[in-house]
Design a protein that fits this description.
Layout (H helix, E strand, L loop, with lengths): L10 H14 L9 E8 L6 H20 L6 E8 L4 H13 L4 E4 L3 H17 L6 E4 L16 E3 L4 H12 L7 E7 L2 H17 L4 E8 L8 H10 L3 E4 L4 H13 L4 E4 L7 H5 L7 E5 L7 H14 L7 H16 L4 H8 L3 E4 L2 E5 L6 E2 L2 E8 L13 E9 L1 H4 L12
Helix pairs in contact: 2-11, 3-4, 5-6, 7-8, 11-12
Length: 417
């Protein structure tokens, strides 16, 4: 760290000065440093509203963390619109690294995430000394932390299998669930939702029938009426869907218009557009599994209320809080903002999060955290937060601690060196 440029001082003086500098300055060598974070996700098209909301969430939380964080760094968000395209994402990754950005964030679309994770790994192999860390806030394909795991990828959401473990554990006690229809987006995440739903229901409730299954194009369907007609014709009393964004909002809108009264077991009811599509309908019939809900309480609730009052929008991508919290703690522990040192410090790191203690599992870089089942119902004194001013809310009905929803990993991680 220290370079001797003169021999005019006695060696002992230099040694004392160096020791003093190490003891006083090196512990927070990164304090005041600006750390750029590249946000690479869809900011236009049908899924654009989700990305726009998430950008606002990151910007809002960056402002909060810049006032105080363990490392004393300043975060700067740089946004890129990938139009939900894996190919465009790889171009934007190069644009980000050309700007010297060493931390990239993405979450919408596991097909994009898989391409990005692979590209980051290859970039790091080719460019020692310029490594990049990929912080995944919501792409949930289990392959990302199993067969295609990467040392440089860290996931802060719970993966599809973890959420389905919690969801089916809840569903097995719902005696009125007897016939299930699987409707999902035709890409990695949708395939995994269907796969794990069938496997886990067969194990926990073998009496439940899968009466239909469909996969539809991602972010292309504008009218789900034909799919809802098939659901009704099948006699399904429940639908399991991993749909998100416009694909879920338009699905529930079509179901409401067609008078379908079955239950929906979802991953993303709280995401932009879906609360409005549900409106006053669906009370007691629409469930969400997630690492959070709209009525978490505590400090994160105060932040969500402030976000809503300030920006007129709802803050639901709370993994952004965990990313900034754990990243700054890892930088403090590593006494550096160097991605190589920070990645090593993130492994196995535990912090107190908004949903309890969370741990970045070292074996596969999958965050271990509590999950919640919440139901769509009227907002009330106990659960007052109303997304999109619908008068409704997502109220928690079941909490699963991390050890319940945790699933094993097959990751054989290749670590640097």
């Amino acid at each position: 760290m220290f370079e001797i440029t003169s021999v005019r001082f006695p060696l002992r003086t230099l040694s004392v000065a160096a020791a003093l500098a190490l003891s006083l300055g090196c512990a927070q060598a990164q304090k005041g440093e600006t750390v750029k974070l590249a946000y690479i996700d869809a900011l236009s098209g049908l899924m654009g509203p989700v990305g726009q909301n998430q950008v606002k969430t990151f910007q809002f939380l960056v402002e909060k963390f810049n006032k105080s964080n363990p490392a004393g760094v300043k975060f700067e968000l740089v946004t890129f619109d990938n139009k939900l395209s894996p190919a465009e994402t790889l171009n934007l990754l190069k644009a980000a690294t050309d700007q010297g950005i060493r931390y990239v964030m993405q979450g919408n679309g596991s097909s994009v995430a898989l391409a990005l994770s692979d590209a980051v790994s290859k970039h790091n192999e080719r460019n020692p000394g310029k490594e990049v860390v990929y912080l995944n806030y919501s792409a949930v394909d289990p392959d990302l932390t199993n067969s295609k795991c990467s040392y440089w990828h860290f996931r802060f959401d719970a993966d599809t299998s973890m959420k389905m473990e919690a969801l089916t554990t809840f569903m097995k006690d719902q005696a009125d669930v007897k016939k299930v229809y699987l409707l999902n987006q035709n890409y990695a995440h949708g395939h995994q939702v269907a796969k794990y739903a069938k496997e886990m229901l067969a194990r926990k409730r073998p009496d439940i029938q899968i009466v239909g299954e469909d996969l539809h194009p991602l972010a292309q369907v504008r009218d789900f009426a034909p799919y809802v007609a098939k659901i009704k014709a099948s006699g399904a009393d429940s639908v399991i869907t991993g749909n998100w964004g416009s694909d879920l909002a338009l699905l529930v809108k079509a179901a409401n218009e067609a008078g379908y009264n079955g239950k929906f077991f979802t991953y993303y009811t709280g995401v932009t557009g879906t609360p409005t599509a549900l409106g006053q309908g669906g009370a007691g019939r629409v469930f969400q599994v997630a690492y959070s809900h709209y009525n978490m309480g505590g400090e994160i609730q105060k932040l969500a209320d402030e976000f809503n009052a300030k920006l007129g929008d709802d803050m639901y991508t709370l993994s952004a809080d965990h990313i900034l919290r754990m990243l700054s703690q890892a930088m403090a522990n590593a006494k550096s903002t160097d991605p190589v040192k920070v990645a090593a410090a993130l492994e196995g790191l535990s912090v107190k999060g908004f949903n309890g203690e969370v741990t970045m599992r070292k074996t596969d870089h999958q965050l271990q955290q509590a999950l919640f089942i919440a139901v769509w119902q009227k907002a009330d004194a106990k659960y007052p937060y109303s997304p999109e001013k619908t008068g409704m809310t997502l109220a928690p009905v079941k909490q699963f601690e991390s050890y319940v929803s945790s699933t094993p990993t097959s990751c054989q991680m290749k670590r640097p060196g």
